[in-house]
Structures are given as C-alpha cells and as structure tokens.
Amino acid sequence: MTIFSGWAARGRAFFSDNKGPWGAPPGSGGDEPPPGNEPSGPWGGTPRKGPRPQVNSLDEFLKRSRGRIGGGGGGFNFGGVPDRSLYAWAIIGIATLWLLFTTMHRIAPEERGVVTRFGRYSHTLSPGIGLTLPSPIDRVQKVNVEEIRPIDLGSAAEETLMLTGDQNIIDIAYQVRWNIRDPEQYLFELATPEDTIRQVAESSMRMIVGQVSLQDAIGNKRGDIEARVAEEMQQTLDSYRAGVVIQGVAIKQADPPAAVNDAFKDVTAAQQDAQSYINDANAYAQQLSQKAQGEATAFDKVYEQYRLAPEVTKRRMYYETMERVLQGVDKTIVEMPGVTPYLPLNELRKSAPREGAAQ
Amino acid sequence: MIAIVRNHPVAAAVIGFVLLLVSFTTVSIVPETQQGVVARFGKPVRIINRYKEGDRFGGPGAGLAVRIPFAENIVWIDKRVRDIDMERQQVLSTDQLRLEVDAFARYRVVDPLRMYIAATSVDRVELALRPILGSQLRNELGKRPFASLLSPEREGAMENIKAGLGRVARQYGVEIVDVRIKKADLPDGTPLQSAYARMMTARRQEARSIRAEGAKRAQIIRAEADAEAAQTYAAAFGKDPQFYDFYRAMQSYQTTFLGDGQTKPAETNIILSPTNEYLKEFTGR
Questions:
Q1: CA of A164: which chain B residue's CA is closest?
Q2: Are B106 and B83 in contact (CB under 8 A)?
Q3: Percentage of chain A surpassing pLDDT 70?
Q4: By the CB < 8 Å criterion, does B240 face chain A?
Q5: Which of A65, A171, A196, B8 has an alpha carbon within 20 to 30 A of A178's alpha carbon?
Q6: Residue A15's pLDDT band (boundaries 50, 70, 90)?
Q7: SS3 B268
Q8: Contact check, Cβ <8 Å, A331/B270
Q9: Which ranges of chain B does DSSP label H, i.e. alpha helix?
Q10: Sign of torsion, CA B55 B57 B59 B60?
Q11: What pLDDT, in 10s, does the model give residues B93-120?
C-alpha cells in the first residue's frame, strides 16, 4: 500500500510539474499559475474583456490553455463571450502538431516508405527521416523489405498428399521464405499478395512433384526439387509483377503416406536382406578359393618331392598314413584261412547306444 | 474578410461548411490501386485511372480527379490482380479415374466500363466466372488420361483453360492473367484406398524382386567360386592323376579314421587279413 501511495505521490508530482511540454516558459515569472494546480473555472475565474494580454509564445499558449481545460469541471462556458484568439491559437497549435506528425517520417533501416500524393505514387523514402507534404496530401506506407517471411505449407500433424509423376502419393511439408523486393509493386499490383504467394507455392510444388518419381521425391533429389519450385514460383510471381523475391523453398518432410509406410520399410529391409545374401556368398567364395589354393599348393609341394623319388616317397607316405590310421583304431587280424572270425558283437552293441547319446 | 466573419459568424460557418462539402464532393482522391467509372446520373461518362499494360506507378491516372458534385458519382473498381479461388472439382479422366482438382485463376479488370455495365462489381464478376472456370477445367482435363492430369501444365491444358475462360471473361472486361491447379488429389475412399493398395503391391513387388536379385547374385558368386576352385584343383592335380589318386586316398584315410581335427570320427574296428598289403611283411617272406 505504502509503495503504491508513494508512487502515486511521485506521479502527481511529475504531472504537476511546473514545466510545459517544452520546458519552462521563458519569462513566466509566476504571474501565470501552474497549470496542474489551478483549481478555478475554465476561464481562469475572471472572464477577460477589453485588451487581452499578449500571448507571445506557443509554450505560453499551451500552458494557459492546459490550465483552462485541465482545470476540469465546467467544460466550455457557453454563457461567456468566447475568446476568439484562443480558438485561433488552438487551430494553429493543432495544425502545427498535425504538420509535425504528418510531414516527418522515421523510416527504419529495414523499411521503405512508399509515398502517395493524393493517391498517386510519388516516390519511395529510404531509411532515415523522410519529409513529405502533410497528411491529406501525402500518405506514407511503410513496407519492411528486409524481413524474410516464412509460409509453412503442410504439417507433420496432418497429411498433405501430393501425386508424384509415377502416380504414387507422397506426404509433403515445406516452407517458403520470401521478402519484398519492390515495395511499390507489392502494394499496388496484387490484391492479396500473401494469399497469392501461398497459392503459387502450392501450385508450383504440386507441379514439380508431379514431374518427378516417388523415389526422387523422398530420396536424394529433394534439393533439386526445392530449387525448381523456387525458380517456378519466382517466374510466376514475376509474371504477376508481385514485387517479391523467393528466398528459398525447404522441404521439411517428404514421406510415403502412413498407410503404405510399412510396405516402404519392407523395401528397405529387402535391400538389406539382398546385401546380406551377397555378403554370405562372398564369404563362401573367399573361403573356397583360399581352400582350393591351399590344397593345390600343398599338392604341388608334395608332388615336387615325389617327382624326385617317386617309389620311395609313395611307400613312405603309405606307411606313414597307415601308421596314423591304425594307431587309433581297434585292430583284429585274422591269420588262419578258413576260420570263421569272431566278431565282438556285444562290444559293438555296447558302444552303439553310447554314440547315440553322444550325438 | 475577417471583419465579415467576425460580424456574421454563423453565416460564415455555414458558408465555410458548404464550401468544404462542395470541395469534398468535387475532388476525389484516386489511389493507384483503383480505377473509377464516373457515372453522371447513372450513365457512365468517363473512366479515371484506367489500367494500361506497362504503366508505371506515379502516372497521370492516379491523383486528384474532379467531378460534378451530386450529378456524377464514381464507382471504384480494383485495378490490381485479383484471384478467383475455385471450389474443388471432380474431374473424370478418359480412363475413368477420378481426381479432385483445386484451381485458381488470376484476373485483372482491364475494361472497367464494360465490367461495370456487365456486372457492376468485381464480386459479381467472380461469382459469374467461378462456375465457368470449373466447367472449363472439367472439360479440358476430362479429355486426358489420368497420367497426364498429374502435370497438365506440360500438356498445354492450362493454356487451353486460360483461353476458354478468357473468352468469357472478356465479356466482363476482365483479362485472365493465369490459371493454375493448386491441388490435384485422389478422392477419399475407394480411389485413395486402391491407390494405396497399388502402392503397397508395387512396394511388395519391389521388395521381392530385390530379395530375388540378391539371392541370384549370391548364387552366381558361389558358382563362380566353385568353378574357380575346380580350375585351381584341376591345374594342380592334373599334372599326375595317378599320384593324385594315391595322395588323395592317403588324405582321405587319415580324415576318415582320424578326423579332420575338428570332429572326432566314429570308432572303427578294422579286421585285417595277413594278405593285406600293409601286412605283407608279417609273413616274413
């Protein structure tokens, strides 16, 4: 509470400041009451007659009139004799303010001010302070030419379906960035420039997508499509004399529709599968080739030695192999001809289930 | 002058008001974006700021215009390029496929007088042209197979539609700047579903053919490897088939009875006769 009352007091102090809007009036030695503090009626209490005090500056005039009107309460005193010079000064004051506000225009660095004189295009103001004729004559429309404006078409939430050249359907979302190149054309040529840009974007994108295949649209030709759409849009808008520049088109999303997405994923999976088949085959080929070369080389080496002493080498190899083979096996030698050999069938039977279990 | 005003303030105010009124009704501001048909008691007499091709802004058309107060009035007509947004149309192609088309036309009033006489306002021109644009579109696109509907710009269809619409538009003093298709979609329901089905089957076909292609290439790679191995073997072993037979038999015995180092062979019992080659020295001869 106290804070608020404190602020309020400060505010009152601010507004009851002795100064007029352009500082303290020169030579107002106190004979004029401060405007905010004057509690009297609209005409300062005493209606003046005869020679009026000379009002020699706008400040003083403003201050006085503020005192009179700001005093509140009565409004206009219709009963009294109107002070004609007050009217004159009021008109001059308003006219001055009017002139001030309608002849000077602050144009920001990114803006251009298009001046129309009685509706006819006159010239364009560059950034800075621009001077024009006052309001009913000259009118200034400020146009921001630097700002890059985005238009979003299609969204992730909703499917924007387009037909591609190979009669497939694609779900696409993109953004068009544009800015104004020619403020006069932008203001005077098209009735609804932003709608026009949006429609041209839709139509150009549809046209370009209608010329490419689905695979190109969802694949690596996106940059190409973006460039072609931007070019097409620029051409069309130039033919309308729209006065805008397409800065770029960005495809944010280009996917098959959700309904067929699984089928598209299966194609990707199939590519992976195919590659893995080939990888397996290559592995087999490598293995086989190495094995063949190894065996062939081994044979060659042995054969070289064999050629030097065929008989001996052959016998040696035979015995060595037999040694190794017979070493590890059960051997039965039947010496007597005509004797029925006893086969240890029990033992064979015993060993049979053991193997079955082992396998 | 001042004295008169001072002496007859009411009269002066009335006169001033009347003067102001007269000047407001006499002089009109003509903006760059509008053209005006001046009608005297309803009869069009002249046109101000008429559109001419290639006009630069700031030309003599716009600015102040004078008219006879109370007798003449000005009907303002937009000079800018405006658009007619058509309602969606269903187009039936020659191969009996349906497509929903959304198009727009851009136009400009080039003969405001004719437009004023024929339709009075641009809204009514749009109202009149919209169905014509629709029917032009249906007629022109209906002559084509579905595939060419997807990019009618290339086929010159849009030019034909523009020309057809332009003929009608000229009666209204309107020039068609451009006709374009904004959207071309398959209608919801069966056509869309069947398109999806077609896309899915196409993908399925693609997936299968990719897999088959992969399998084929794998088989070829294996066969080539087999052939190459056979060649390698033949080159080496063909030098002495008899020795190879012996050499390979030795290897085979070893593998069969001892295993290849990874798997253990089944247990073996060998019954040898003393006449066996290996045991030939047993007899001690």
A1: B150
A2: yes
A3: 70
A4: yes
A5: A171
A6: very low
A7: coil
A8: yes
A9: 2-7, 9-26, 112-119, 122-141, 146-149, 152-155, 157-171, 190-237, 241-258
A10: positive
A11: 888 888 888 888 999 998 888 888 888 8
Question: B78: helix, coil or strand?
Answer: strand
Give the pTM. Answer: 0.64
In this complex, the residue of A161, A266, A334 whose CB is nearest that of residue B185 is A161
ipTM (interface pTM):
0.72
Q: Where are the domains of chain A?
A: 1-13+54-81, 82-144, 149-256
Confidence class for position A338, pLDDT limits 50, 70, 90: low
pLDDT higher than threshold 50 for residue A26: no
Are residues B92 and B22 located together in one domain of the fold?
no
CATH number, residue B171: 3.30.479.30
- Residue A20 tokens read as 């007029």
pLDDT on residue A66: 53
Establish if B213 touches chain A: CB-CB under 8 angstroms: yes
Asked whether the predicted pLDDT for residue B26 surpasses 90, the reply is no
Q: What is the residue type of A81?
A: V
Q: What are the CA-CA distances from residue B38 to residues B58, B65, B244 (Å)?
A: 21, 10, 116
Average pLDDT over residues B211-219: 95
d(CA A188, CA A141) in angstroms, rounded, equals 11
Instruction: Return the residue matching tokens 């069969």.
Output: B256
Report d(CA B155, CA B144) in Å as an integer.
10
Other CB atoms within a 10 A radius of the CB of residue A272 amount to 13
Q: What is the domain extent for residue B87?
A: 82-187
Instruction: Answer whether B44's CB lies under 8 Å from B38's CB.
Output: yes
Same domain flag for B41 and B99: no
**Coil/strand/helix, residue A259:** helix
Are residues B86 and B180 part of one domain?
yes
Q: Are strands A128-131 and A244-255 parallel, antiparallel or unpaired?
A: unpaired
CATH topology assigned to domain A149-256 = Tetrahydropterin Synthase; Chain A (3.30.479)
Whether residues B131 and B150 fall in one domain: yes
Going through chain A in order, the beta strands assigned E by DSSP cover: 104-107, 111-117, 120-125, 128-131, 138-144, 149-153, 161-163, 169-180, 244-255, 330-333
Residue A170, amino acid: I
